[in-house]
Specification:
single chain; 2 domains; alpha/beta; Rossmann fold; 11 helices
């Protein structure tokens, strides 16, 4: 099985009775995320889950609810999926979670392409993340986790799925990282001077954000017990790493949607690191 380390980590959590109720599984391969989610559902419930595309009938597996954009009425127009998960579908998931488990095990909700939940749907779903009932397992699958609201991301454990090659820094990224590591150790005045002088046009700002995301995600993996060759310059607490990752992802999202100032955004990040 691919991503054996991630699976063994979750298996240990489950066997120790420490499995969190909500996860974000993120990575570029949607099929990979679905397969891993399926294996986790099988693990916690000891049931066979049929259907490689999760087209599971309620009669065969009534404790699993799958939400995807094709099931949202507002997403379909002229027979074409517009890739939106609306509040009505999330309310269906909430209604499903309000009932007891059919088999007496976990009630599981899987949201495919979770980043396609609109803002209304994400805000609606917060209650389930804040106040889960009984043995509940919520799995958000996403290739763009930065599009999730910070209030959603902060209430879920993050598991990232990428190949070893994808996790490595390119030579250009290595150079950027070395510069950033030096800046992270500067005082505030020096950090402000750095952001004032650095050129952030022609994609430079985006490249810096990518490097920072990779760096802190690898620190997060190392913190939760997944081996990493990365040597941190500081012993960041786990919650601090999560806070920084959420901040970077929020800024990355805002830079795509709004005409925000890259220099100001970088200053905000450097104040945290």
């Amino acid at each position: 099985m691919e991503h054996q380390k991630q699976f063994e980590f979750l298996k240990q959590k489950y066997e120790a009775g420490q499995l969190p109720h909500a996860y974000v599984f993120s990575g570029p391969d949607a099929g990979d995320l679905k397969y891993f989610a399926k294996e986790l559902v099988k693990l916690v419930n000891g049931k066979n889950v049929a259907g490689s595309d999760f087209a599971i009938e309620k009669e065969t597996y009534p404790d699993l609810f799958i939400a995807k954009s094709q099931n949202s009425k507002s997403s379909l127009k002229d027979g074409e999926d517009k890739r939106e998960i609306d509040i009505a579908l999330i309310r269906e998931a909430q209604n499903f979670l309000s009932y007891k488990s059919y088999y007496g095990g976990y009630k599981t909700v899987i949201i495919e392409d979770a980043d396609y939940m609109n803002t209304e749907a994400q805000n609606c779903f917060l209650k389930n993340l804040e106040e889960p009932k009984g043995d509940t397992l919520i799995l958000l699958l996403s290739s763009k986790p930065e599009m999730l609201l910070p209030t959603i991301s902060s209430r879920c454990q993050q598991i990232k799925f990428t190949s070893d090659i994808a996790e490595k820094f390119s030579p250009e990224e290595q150079n950027i990282l070395q510069d950033l590591l030096k800046v992270m150790q500067m005082d505030l005045a020096e950090k402000f001077l750095y952001t004032k002088n650095i050129k952030l046009d022609n994609g430079n700002f985006d490249r810096i954000l990518v490097v920072l995301q990779k760096y802190f995600r690898q620190l997060l993996l190392a913190k939760i017990g997944i081996p990493s060759s990365l040597v941190p310059i500081k012993d960041y607490p786990l919650q601090k790493i999560k806070k920084i990752i959420n901040l970077i992802e929020t800024i990355s999202h805002n830079s795509l949607v709004y005409n925000s100032s890259p220099k100001l955004a970088l200053e905000i990040i450097l104040l945290e690191v």
